[in-house]
Design goal:
CATH architecture of the largest domain: 3-Layer(aba) Sandwich
CATH class of the largest domain: Alpha Beta
Structural class: alpha/beta
CATH superfamily of the largest domain: HUPs
Shape: elongated
Domain Methionyl-tRNA synthetase anticodon-binding: 433-531
Strand content: 15-25%
Number of helices: 19
Radius of gyration: 27 Å
Domain Methionyl/Leucyl tRNA synthetase: 35-399
GO molecular function: ATP binding; methionine-tRNA ligase activity
Number of domains: 2
Largest sheet: 7 strands, parallel
Oligomer: single chain
Organism: Coemansia pectinata
Distance between the termini: 73 Å
Enzyme class: ligase
Number of strands: 19
CATH topology of the largest domain: Rossmann fold
């Protein structure tokens, strides 16, 4: 009997049991102290651009923020290297396909290092252990009765590696060729009509369960606009998903187990990476970090992660991700970035020009979660000059003069005293500093780091106004004990603003924020989120002294 026939007989044998098979996750709950963040694995048909850098940094900030709260953290990264688009690109370049993939994969690996990503597990879908994991996952779906073979027809986009229905395509003129054709409405990519026999996944059986999952948590898909999009897709109905391609058309991928005439659909292959990096298949062992706590993706691939991926996990009896964060894209001059328009920013060149932490700060501060961010060299310089140098470093420098006589050794006690007795001249700044940690945390917990940092810089602006009004450079000239006491209070409020802002900036600009905390003598043991509250600093015993040179942390950029 042919392997394919045996396979179909097996599927048919199991089909009657599908209704009785549980699709509830069977693995035990993971340790709540473990926190798993995933980056999307990037397609290796081109070099990294600034949008990739944003995704990488956003995931890194989420991971570092979790670590600051005492979590044991893990992050995955990597490259998606299978599919027809890659096969054709390698053929056009007259290159061996694997070496073609390796060239671009290495650049994405370089991006992790250049972006100062904190210890990501990098995976390639061409890795042998991943291919084995994909084959195992496929067999689980077969064993549980969710894969069948049938004829599939539809509008297929090579670029998107996806089929579209009649309602998802439109006829229009291609502006690059002036020829009429059919295009996917969602992505704008050209499509062609394809009719073929392949394997299909019973996605339609999970429609109601997916709706229940999404409606059961307001933040399982964030932001709300993406959540509403996914719910609209599901409520409109879903068809079963084509999960293989004829090997005569697509050889570059994982073969369907038991049927060497078909290749597993690239998105099934790619999505399994999030389990592979944590040791899947686990057998009798417990996963270390799976399922992911946050999966960072671009809004263009939310359907694959918020519909296909959870449905596949349900079918395999595996737990679902806690949260899918689908961020917006980047434009330049309010136009979509495009190589043909010459408006694509190279992250490696940008890091070289502006410095890594300045670029990281700009991307997080200006980047969009719900709405697209606009990349501008001028705006990068503005953020550097006005925020990092003008507000943060300038405030620290104003307090660092040796002639002001800062008495850091008394700041721990002073911070406690000021929580009980606030001078009328300090009420506004005191309230802002006291409220900032909880307000920022409520935004950081949603991954709205840009908005949270905006609050921190609003407080720094008030702290700069406060020190100007209270003139410590005048107070220091007085021999009056009350004036000297007032001097220390004024300096405390300024340095407390710098301390809180620097701790909140640690996930975003880790190198510069740590150096600034060194300058203001904050012990390394006091740089966790628990220390980001008013009066919680300078608690470690021992002498404390401000270090000079704060102003050079963010030098002038041309």
């Amino acid at each position: 009997m042919h392997a394919c026939t045996r396979f179909l007989n097996y599927v048919a044998l199991r089909a009657g049991q599908v209704r009785r098979l549980s699709v509830t996750p069977t693995l035990r709950e993971k340790d709540t102290n473990k926190y798993f963040v995933t980056q999307p694995i990037f397609y290796v048909n081109s070099v990294p651009h600034i949008g990739h850098f944003y995704t990488v940094v956003l995931a890194d900030v989420i991971k570092r923020y979790a670590g600051m709260q005492g979590k044991s953290t893990k992050m995955s990264a990597g490259t998606d290297e299978h599919g027809l688009k890659i096969q054709q690109a390698a053929e056009r370049a007259n290159r061996d396909t694997l070496s073609f993939c390796t060239q671009y994969s290495n650049r994405f690996r370089d991006l992790q290092a250049a972006a100062n990503v904190d210890n990501a597990d990098f995976i390639r879908t061409t890795d042998p252990h991943h291919r084995q994991a994909v084959a195992h996952f496929w067999n689980v779906l077969v064993d549980r009765g969710f894969i069948y073979k049938g004829e599939h027809s539809g509008w297929y986009s090579v670029s998107d590696e996806a089929f579209y229905t009649e309602l998802q395509v439109e006829e229009r003129v291609d502006p690059s060729t002036d020829k009429r054709g059919m295009f996917a409405i969602e992505s704008g990519q050209p499509v062609e009509w394809v009719s073929e026999v392949n394997y299909k996944f019973k996605l339609s059986e999970f429609r109601n369960r997916l709706i229940e999952w999404i409606e059961g948590s307001q933040d399982v898909i964030y932001p709300e606009i993406r959540r509403n999009e996914v719910l609209a897709w599901l409520r409109a109905g879903v068809d079963d998903l084509s999960v293989s391609r004829p090997r005569s058309r697509l050889k570059w991928g994982v073969p369907v187990p038991g049927d060497d005439e078909h290749t597993i659909y690239v998105w099934v292959d790619a999505l399994v990476n999030y389990a592979t990096v944590d040791g899947y298949p686990w057998g009798d062992n417990k996963p270390s970090f799976f399922p992911p706590d946050v999966q960072v993706v671009g809004k263009d691939i939310v359907r694959f992660h918020a519909v296909y991926w959870p449905a596949l996990l349900m079918a395999a009896g595996l737990p679902l991700p806690k949260r899918i964060l689908a961020h917006a894209h980047w434009t330049m001059g309010s136009q979509k970035m495009s190589k043909s328009k010459g408006n694509v920013a190279d992250p490696f060149e940008a890091i070289e020009r502006y410095g890594l932490d300045t670029l990281r700060y700009f991307m997080i501060r200006n980047g969009g979660i719900a709405d697209d961010g606009d990349y501008s060299a001028d705006e990068v310089l503005v953020r550097h000059r006005k925020d990092l140098a003008g507000q943060l470093a300038n405030l620290a420098a104003r307090c660092s003069s040796e002639r002001l006589g800062v008495k850091l050794d008394g700041f721990a006690a002073l911070g406690q005293a000021l929580q009980r007795d606030v001078d009328s001249r300090d009420i506004t700044l005191h309230a802002l500093l006291t409220e900032l940690p909880d307000k920022a945390k409520s935004l950081f917990d949603k991954s709205e780091f840009g908005r949270g940092l905006g609050l921190a810089f609003d407080v720094l602006a008030e702290a700069n106004r406060h020190i100007t009004e209270n003139e410590p450079w005048t107070l220091v000239k007085s021999s009056d004990p009350q004036q000297q006491a007032r001097l220390q209070v004024v300096l405390f409020y300024s340095l407390e603003a710098v301390r809180l802002a620097s701790i909140m900036l640690l996930p975003t600009i880790p190198e510069k924020a740590n150096r600034l905390l060194d300058h203001i003598a904050v012990d390394t043991s006091e740089r966790q989120w628990v220390n980001a509250r008013f009066g919680a600093g300078w608690q470690t015993p021992g002498p404390k002294q401000l270090l000079p040179g704060v102003a050079t942390l963010f030098p002038k950029l041309a």
